[in-house]
Amino acid sequence: MHELSIAYSIIDIVNEEAQKANSSKVSEIELEVGSLSGVEVDALEFAMEAAKKDTIIEAAEIKILLKPAIAKCKKCTTEFSATSLFDPCPQCGGFENEIIQGQEMRVKSLVVE
What we know:
The protein is α+β, with helices and mostly antiparallel strands. The chain has helices at residues 2-20, 41-51, and strands at 26-34, 61-67, 69-73, 79-82, 97-101, 105-112. The chain has a 3-stranded mixed β-sheet, covered by helices on one side. Strands 4-3-5 form a 3-stranded antiparallel β-sheet, with no helix packed on it.
């Protein structure tokens, strides 16, 4: 389950940002997870609950926002919603597509006190 290592990495990022803000408590974390990021949201939620014990984010509310995947056809430049890395372009049927959104996983915002 690589989501546990992702959870620990998120905690490291949060610790670093809280130190920059001279804060010892984080009350909210907002995460953005792309639908094609390879991250299982349920597993990430479970991992975050386990990993946050005895940390600066122990009492923090964790919000996970799902970001839909959008692809752009390299042949006809049509942008479309993608459900996999190999969806054909709905306009021309081409498979030469670039995923322009939906593969990311990031800490979008923090509320520190």
